[in-house]
Amino acid sequence: MSGAALSAPPLLRRVHLRVEGTVQGVGFRPHVHRLAGELALAGWVRNDHRGVVAEVEGGPLAVEAFLRRLADDAPPLSQVERVLVVDAAATGERGFVIAESDAAGAANALVAPDAATCEDCLRELRDSADRRFRYPFVNCTNCGPRYTIVRGVPYDRPSTTMAGFAMCAACRAEYDDPADRRFHAQPNACPDCGPRARLLDANGSEVAGADDAVAGAAAALRRGAIVAVKGLGGYHLACLAADADAVGELRTRKHREDRPFALLATDLAGARELVELSSSAEALLVAPERPIVLAPRRDGAAVADAVAPGHPELGVMLPYTPLHHLLADDLGAPLVLTSANVSDEPIAYRDEEARQRLRSIADLFLVHDRPIHTRVDDSVVRPGMILRRSRGHVPRALVLPVPAARHLLACGAELKSTFCLAREERAWLSHHVGDLKNVETLASYGEGVELLQRLFAVVPEVVAHDLHPDYLSTRFALGRDGLQTVAVGHHHAHLAACLAEHGEVGPAIGAIFDGAGLGADGTVWGGELLAGGLDGYARAGHLWPVRLPGGDRAVRQPWRMACAWLAEALGEPPPLPPALAGRVDPGAWRAVSEMVRTGLASPVTTSAGRLFDAVAAVCGLRTDVTYEGQAAIELEAACDPAERGAYELPVEGGVLDARPLVLAVARDVERGVASGVVATRFHHGLADATAEACTQAARERAMATAVLSGGAFQNRRLLERTAAGLRTAGLRVLVPERLPANDGAIAFGQAAVAAASTTAP
Ligand code: ZN
Ligand code: ZN
Ligand code: FE
Questions:
Q1: d(CA 641, CA 186)
Q2: Where do runs of H (alpha helix) occur along 86-150?
Q3: What are the backbone angles phi and psi of residue 162, rounded to the nearest 5°?
Q4: Which residues lie below 8 Å from residue 332, measured CB to CB, with a gap of 6+?
Q5: Can you give the pLDDT at residue 231?
Q6: What is the pLDDT of residue 340?
Q7: Which of 46, 193, 542, 668 has its CB 3.0 to 4.6 Å from that of 168, i.e. a possible disulfide?
Q8: What is the mean pLDDT of residues 25-33?
Q9: How far away, in angstroms, is 135 Cα from ligand 2 center?
Q10: DSSP alpha helices (H): ranges in 525-621?
Q11: How far is the CA of 654 from the centre of ligand 2 (A)?
Q12: C-alpha span between 195 and 295 (Å, rounded)
């Protein structure tokens, strides 16, 4: 044949190809193997440090079909970012093989996020004839734990927390067979060789007679017990959602005040009985990320009041591990499934630590012996909006609009903290780490940075941080010796994050509304109009500044903001509003109004979040809060959807003067106007003024794009009406979609700014 080929046209085509993206540990090589087999192509495929490489050889049409279907038919958990193809000389090779991995070089293959149990595994779980019947750790290349169990690279069993489990012969055969669904499924296991679930009492002793730990836990839950359940990314606390005594007891033991509990529905039909689901909400519920989906509570939903006091929405998720599926199947009723922590501590994830911390809360512990390497909370979404981007999403890579010429670390903010690593065009935004003021959270932040650096071979040369010198994330950044530092304003980072998420660099006019962030002038910003892009910005306007009486105390006590805003609007010490009589001590009110007058311990702020607090307090809805954003959430929830009115909020020179608005709120409340009507008029007034201010600022600068971001824009009423106003004025509107509007996206914004401002050495 080779002799004839010298003169004849080539009958065979051979190509060398490289596939980049999330292509390891997700069944990509078997996919290539199958496809080559189907098309009768020869060659090989293997993993290397950058992804998957392969060579295929055969008829030109078959090779073309192969290249077309390579990405189109890719396995569900893979994410093909790029396929590079070069022609090679045909060799006449026969057959197709999966070759040994090449571990050399810098790791660039992307570890996949954890994924919900697939339909095939679920079928085995429920099939009494299957060897994995009721096995709580069934998984395959299309599903199961990934990020939460990985300790290093290459992504191979020894570098996961499955390292301590030796596969039995049956599992090993599956693992080694390219045609098997479990080929190189690193967490592959069965009841003979894998992790085991156990049911323990609060002293750590195994509960007698519980051969089937999950069935034992389900029976206890049915009797009203509170059970700590070790899940994928940490421990949860569970009890029957309809059991008012159990839920009330859980709330008492957990000291969690008013923050709503998430629910685990049995299945989609069960979720539909709890909440009103749009088709997009259903799609989110069943997606492999399996987030908590916020949706309107259904009338008569069989859920105790204490699950989400005062909330018109419930957070619902579907089972995402086999263990959760078994629990849900056994119970046939929705469970509360809330992160196992006390107040602001991070979610518990190590067994001994969990037992110590939770023994006063949980009656029983449903545990297992597969270690969790990284603590990862459940993600939280609404259709079109993500509120917490964590389990199921992390560590999927994001793309920077301006590639990073040097390796970057961006340290984020402080409360809903995340960090971000970047190299070239890729950025990895971490899981939700939480409030860094907690010592344990700060430690896990450092460990997380180390792990992600190793996983993605990022060796930071540049570190980006917030302007606030006292944020622990800033101190962490400045404590890294020898790195070039880039300080990024908090609200600039919000603007940049939204632009970059959409692949844009600006310029745009951004309305960035949140609780607080240190501004360029040293005051506390939070109701900002910024004109600019990744490369810089100018402050084009802001909310009228007021005092923040007592600093952090004003955040916990919205009535203080009512006092500050009324004093500002009246120009004199305000009388205690009738709606607050009997709820706020008149002496304390006078003392706070004195603080406002003198400015003692009362920094100046333009915070939009604090304006929401003030209005909620003047309405009498909320004088004190137990978690961040509570007053604003309740004010939005109170809105009367039938109301069409809007309060006046004049805009002059970019300044949104909310003083007349606050007076109008107080006047209406005094006249007995329903708080739902007042709340709606407030939302409309603020949204209309924001749209007007942005439109003015955009016209002056000949800009065509507006960005709405910052935590306050998680408020849908505010977001939708502002966006509608901007569109009517002819502006293009960008809002956060794949990343949160809140501080969870700050690190990505910092990375985008730093990438745009640093050049290669
Ligand atoms: Zn599976
Ligand atoms: Zn086995
Ligand atoms: Fe913020």
A1: 51
A2: 119-125
A3: -90, 0
A4: 266
A5: 94
A6: 86
A7: 193
A8: 88
A9: 11
A10: 552-556, 558-570, 586-598, 608-618
A11: 66
A12: 35
